[in-house]
């Protein structure tokens, strides 16, 4: 074989190797990115699944929430009280950057089935529970108006044949923190419905989709509005779950709750919040450089 043919063959082989390496590295990076989330799933709320949840009212915090299924009169009264049912651990919302401004913000999506006519709210709180015995109770500061929207004008109320949806801040933290986190209240029209709530941190957009039970998520959102969660409105980590006028409305009415939230990597070692993703690309570039040098 002539020398030029051998050289051409070698270059082609190295190009094939380059494509294989790029493909493998890209798959590795994609897999890592896909795993960079926290996921939670609760088909039902019962004495078993609520062992890692927390229930809270204006006067007390119950942990684990599985105590709500005891036959004691005290817990029965708690079930009839307005309150929260929350994950026992916090999730990432944002991370601070240079100068104290938010550097990263988490997107999330959650879905659940809701039955009955009682309104139930999906909520994003702060990293700590509201002060007990707060003035006005947990809903004392929950009255929402369109002026609370980020642009000061966009309405966050929407109604359809199946439900009414209202989105705004949580008002449970008292007058010193009148607008906290996120409160998406869904009121079904005496029907069993499926609800999807999505927050896209990249474009600061909240979307709420609703369909009949067992139906696929519709292409068009019932409610779509601008929203920014990072900064003074929330802490970097937050408690997440549900609120209702009676805790039992959550236990009985909510089914098939799924939640997926972006997870930030620990930056305590001095790196940034996306340490793993950055490292993957550094490795990829190093490999590509090695292959190129072979040619």
UniProtKB/TrEMBL annotation:
Keywords: Lectin, Signal. Transmembrane segments: none annotated. The keyword Cell division does not apply. It comes from the Eukaryota. Pfam families: Lectin_legB. The keyword Signal applies. Residues 39-262 form the Legume lectin domain. Residues 1-26 form the signal peptide. One of its GO terms (molecular function) is carbohydrate binding. Belongs to the leguminous lectin family. This is Legume lectin domain-containing protein. It comes from Sorghum bicolor (Sorghum).
């Amino acid at each position: 074989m002539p020398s030029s043919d051998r050289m051409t063959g070698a270059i082609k082989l190295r190009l094939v190797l380059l494509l294989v390496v790029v493909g493998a590295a890209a798959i590795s990076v994609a897999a890592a990115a896909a795993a960079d989330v926290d996921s939670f799933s609760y088909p039902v709320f019962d004495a078993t699944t609520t062992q890692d949840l927390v229930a809270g009212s204006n006067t007390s915090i119950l942990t684990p929430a599985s105590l709500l299924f005891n036959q004691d009169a005290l817990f029965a009264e708690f079930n009839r009280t307005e309150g929260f049912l929350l994950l026992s651990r916090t999730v990432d919302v944002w991370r601070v950057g240079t100068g104290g401004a938010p550097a990263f913000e988490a997107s999330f999506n959650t879905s659940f089935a809701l039955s009955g006519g009682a309104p139930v709210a999906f909520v994003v709180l702060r990293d700590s529970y509201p002060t007990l015995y707060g003035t006005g109770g947990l809903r004392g500061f929950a009255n929402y108006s369109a002026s609370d929207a980020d642009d000061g004008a966009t309405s966050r109320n929407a109604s359809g044949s199946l439900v009414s949806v209202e989105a705004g801040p949580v008002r449970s933290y008292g007058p010193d923190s009148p607008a906290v986190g996120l409160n998406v209240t869904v009121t079904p029209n005496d029907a069993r419905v499926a609800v999807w709530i999505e927050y896209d941190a990249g474009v600061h957009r909240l979307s709420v989709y609703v369909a009949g039970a067992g139906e696929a998520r519709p292409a068009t959102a019932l409610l779509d509005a601008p929203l920014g969660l990072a900064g003074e409105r929330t802490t970097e980590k937050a408690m997440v779950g549900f609120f209702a006028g009676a805790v039992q409305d959550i236990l009985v009415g909510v089914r098939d709750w799924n939640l997926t939230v972006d997870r930030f990597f620990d930056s305590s070692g001095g790196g940034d919040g996306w340490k793993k993703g950055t490292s993957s690309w550094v490795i990829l570039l190093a490999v590509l450089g090695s292959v190129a040098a072979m040619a």
